[in-house]
Design goal:
globular; alpha/beta; 8-stranded parallel beta sheet; single chain; TIM Barrel
């Protein structure tokens, strides 16, 4: 398959917080070609660029919340452009922006403006979904309305295959829905829990909630690739058909008694066994 494999740094944030450089070195040793950033871990853009160049990892993309982008778009886009990212993804937003139709319409305009600003800085804006975007407005998913409302050249997809599945859709078919608009696809495996306590939190909020909740009480438990319910051969075939350049491994929390880095290594070995 034509695409390359990157690791979302949020997956190994506990390592990166302690020693960013050695974490990057280990990611390279495991066999990842690139990374997707989730913050700079106390480094300047110039330092991150120097480290990725030195170690030989491609800084493919970066995850930044919508609120952070809106707060200081010029700095955000300048910083990640300096690092050498090709893409920048809206990683999350306040859920009310999706569920409230009036706020959602305003959010679409905000995202379109950010997409144009990103392009002026040499970056392509992506949108990274969770489950909430599969809320229906007038019979259509909010996520689809977003992509229908903003021109393809301004906003491209970063389909998170885990949350597509959790929302009740087939990840492979959903990727195919956006052939030609899916340069980066997120690979994430999980299992459904038997007696979950519903949670609509994502990102840092989900992490804080998880600290106080047993894994089996959350709607899903994250797993290294190949250890959950996802059909990755089908997903990868669809990603190739859609023209993906990169697939990004992401595991929000470690599991199976493994460290976050061990989980990242298991996922990379799984993809190697599939010939990627």
């Amino acid at each position: 398959m034509a695409f390359s494999v990157a690791l979302q740094m949020y997956s190994v944030r506990d390592y990166a917080d302690r020693d960013f450089k050695s974490t990057l070195q280990r990611i390279k040793e495991i066999g990842y070609k690139g990374i997707e950033l989730a913050g700079l871990y106390g480094h300047t853009p110039a330092e991150v660029k120097k480290l990725t160049d030195e170690i030989g990892l491609v800084p493919v993309s970066a995850h930044v919340s919508l609120e952070d982008m809106l707060a200081d778009p010029d700095k955000i886009f300048t910083d990640y452009s300096e690092i050498g990212c090709t893409y920048i993804a809206i990683s999350s937003m306040n859920k009310e922006r999706i569920l409230d139709e009036e706020k959602f319409n305003h959010t679409i305009k905000d995202i379109e403006n950010l997409a144009a600003a990103a392009q002026r800085n040499g970056l392509q804006l992506l949108y990274h979904n969770h489950e909430a975007e599969f809320h229906k407005i007038n019979g259509e998913y909010a996520l689809d309305i977003l992509y229908q409302s903003i021109p393809t050249e301004l906003l491209k997809t970063q389909i998170d295959t885990c949350w597509v599945h959790v929302a009740g859709e087939d990840p492979a078919e959903y990727i195919r829905k956006y052939i030609g608009r899916s340069p980066v696809v997120h690979l994430k495996d999980f299992i459904f829990n038997k007696n979950p306590k519903e949670t609509d939190q994502t990102g840092d909020q989900a992490e804080e909630q998880a600290k106080e909740t047993k894994e089996e009480d959350i709607i899903i438990s994250f797993r290294p690739l190949g250890n959950g319910v996802q059909n990755f051969p089908a997903i990868l075939t669809a990603a190739e058909e859609a023209g993906a350049e990169w697939v990004v491994v992401e595991q929000d929390r470690p599991s199976m008694g493994k460290t976050s880095m061990e989980c990242a290594e298991i996922s990379r070995k799984y993809l190697k066994n599939l010939g990627i």
